[in-house]
Specification:
Elements: E1 4-5, E2 13-18, H1 22-33, E3 38-44, H2 47-57, E4 61-65, E5 91-95, H3 100-109, E6 113-116, H4 122-133, H5 141-151, H6 170-180, H7 185-192, H8 196-210, H9 215-233
Parallel strand pairs: 2-3, 2-4, 4-5, 5-6
Antiparallel strand pairs: 1-3
Helix pairs in contact: 3-5, 5-9, 6-8, 6-9, 7-8
């Protein structure tokens, strides 16, 4: 079943909304369309129609409910690591509650944001949409904690006192900062006056220490840790 399509307002952020049923889609779409600069260009109630709308309309962003019928892999399944390849635009996962495993799996699957419906503030969701379209990652403080705990090996319920964050050397910290800035290995090597081979070796060691598998996860870890460090110091 194809998603419902509408004509977007001029110069607005174009959104595809996918939710569990027609009523939920309509309520979400109506609420977003009342926000300045946002237009829902299509709504869908199953994964396949959402994917078709995204492929044909090329929206700026997609909002996908965690309860959307027809997902080939639910967010908690390991196979969602490839889900980012199924969408041609940034996407935000909509959750009823911020379950740690869903938050972690969605971010590792390529979601650029996680929004909990329990926040129930359409203005905040609109802000989330704008920030993600600008290239930022949207997670709240609790979700950052879930992510950091997962990378630190505490996803199975260990407490903070039973597991300490891994220590990086000053050079490794420098490499992480440059990765977060978006530098590729060659640029990092030039900036630090190292060979690309040395930079690769540093990255392998960093990945192993932090329990991450790629540069995206490394950037997420670094952003989460910085945010939590700032809050601890406040």
């Amino acid at each position: 079943m194809a998603g419902a399509k509408v004509t977007p307002r001029k110069n607005s952020i174009r959104i595809v909304a996918a939710d569990s049923n027609h009523m939920a889609c309509r309520l979400l779409s109506d609420a977003l369309n009342k926000q300045p600069g946002l237009s829902v260009v299509a709504s869908s109630v199953d994964f396949e129609s959402a994917r078709q709308c995204i492929d044909s309309l090329r929206p700026d962003i997609a909002l996908i409910s965690a309860s959307l019928p027809g997902w080939p892999s639910r967010p908690e399944a390991p196979a969602t690591k490839g889900m980012n390849a199924r969408f041609s635009c940034p996407w935000v996962l909509l959750l009823d509650e911020s379950e740690p495993r869903l938050v972690i799996a969605a971010l590792r699957a390529g979601a650029r944001g996680i929004f909990s419906r329990s926040q129930s503030d359409i203005g905040l969701l609109a802000k989330c949409v704008r920030r993600v379209v600008e290239g930022q990652i949207w997670v709240d403080n609790r979700q950052m904690l879930y992510l950091l705990e997962a990378f630190n090996g505490r996803a199975n319920g260990e407490t903070a006192s039973s597991c300490h964050p891994p220590n990086l050397t000053p050079r490794e910290e420098s490499v992480v900062k440059l990765v977060v800035q978006g530098m590729v290995n060659r640029e990092i090597a030039e900036h630090l006056r190292l060979s690309e081979h040395t930079v690769k070796n540093y990255l392998f060691r960093i990945f192993d220490k932090l329990g991450v598998s790629n540069r995206v996860e490394l950037a997420l870890y670094a952003v989460a840790k910085l945010k939590l460090d700032e809050e601890s110091a406040a």
